């Protein structure tokens, strides 16, 4: 199974440097000079990291195979991917593909919808839930709200605050 380490963003300068949207929790280990990555789409790679630098919270790299701005622009929106290391399993951590398709239930077992994706955020990720009426709800993926992920029962339990889902009724005094 391929996992996304980063998504290539815009070119920066004339020498092929690009900004990365980092998707790994270990960038200091994954994004090092000399590391080779397959790409998605595959025809742009493989690529080898030639330089790495951080500036104001952003990560910038150059690739040995793309040494100018034109080449860097061709890489835009490409994913840098790796084969998963199944030995590195974390407790209370899930891959997006494991969450998609799970049934979203409230603590009493009533259906809230179906998980259709995971969206990274600056402070925490969001579960994307398609409600039965078709509306899309972004649920903060924090333990206080998503209280349980049960892959065996194919569901997530969401203890949502009032008003998060479309059919919640808010009491107005």
From TrEMBL:
InterPro entries: PRC_barrel-like_sf, PRC_RimM, RimM, RimM_N, RimM_N_sf, Transl_B-barrel_sf. GO terms for biological process: ribosomal small subunit biogenesis; rRNA processing. Residues 97-164 form the Ribosome maturation factor RimM PRC barrel domain. The keyword Chaperone applies. Transmembrane segments: none annotated. Keywords: Chaperone, Cytoplasm, Ribosome biogenesis, rRNA processing. One of its GO terms (molecular function) is ribosome binding. Gene3D superfamilies: PRC-barrel domain, RimM. It is found in: Cytoplasm. GO terms for cellular component: cytoplasm; ribosome. Residues 5-85 form the RimM N-terminal domain. The keyword Lipid metabolism does not apply. Pfam families: PRC_RimM (PF24986), RimM (PF01782). Belongs to the RimM family. The PRC barrel domain binds ribosomal protein uS19. An accessory protein needed during the final step in the assembly of 30S ribosomal subunit, possibly for assembly of the head region. Essential for efficient processing of 16S rRNA. May be needed both before and after RbfA during the maturation of 16S rRNA. It has affinity for free ribosomal 30S subunits but not for 70S ribosomes. PANTHER family: RIBOSOME MATURATION FACTOR RIMM (PTHR33692:SF1). Binds ribosomal protein uS19. HAMAP family: Ribosome_mat_RimM. This is Ribosome maturation factor RimM. The gene is rimM.
């Amino acid at each position: 199974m391929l996992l996304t380490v980063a998504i290539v963003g815009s070119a920066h300068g004339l020498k092929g440097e690009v900004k990365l949207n980092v998707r790994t929790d270990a960038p200091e280990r994954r994004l090092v000079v000399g590391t080779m990555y397959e790409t998605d789409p595959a025809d742009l790679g493989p690529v080898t990291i030639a330089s790495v630098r951080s500036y104001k919270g952003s990560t910038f790299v150059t690739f040995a195979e793309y040494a100018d701005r034109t080449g860097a622009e061709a890489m835009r929106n490409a994913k840098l991917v790796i084969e998963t290391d199944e030995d590195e399993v974390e407790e209370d951590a899930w891959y997006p593909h494991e969450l998609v398709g799970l049934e979203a239930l409230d603590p009493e077992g009533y259906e809230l919808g179906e998980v259709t994706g995971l969206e990274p955020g600056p402070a925490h990720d969001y579960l994307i839930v398609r409600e039965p009426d078709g509306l899309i709800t972004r649920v903060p993926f924090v333990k206080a709200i998503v209280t349980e992920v049960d892959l065996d029962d194919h569901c997530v339990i969401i203890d949502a605050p009032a008003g998060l889902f479309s059919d919640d009724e808010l009491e107005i005094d």
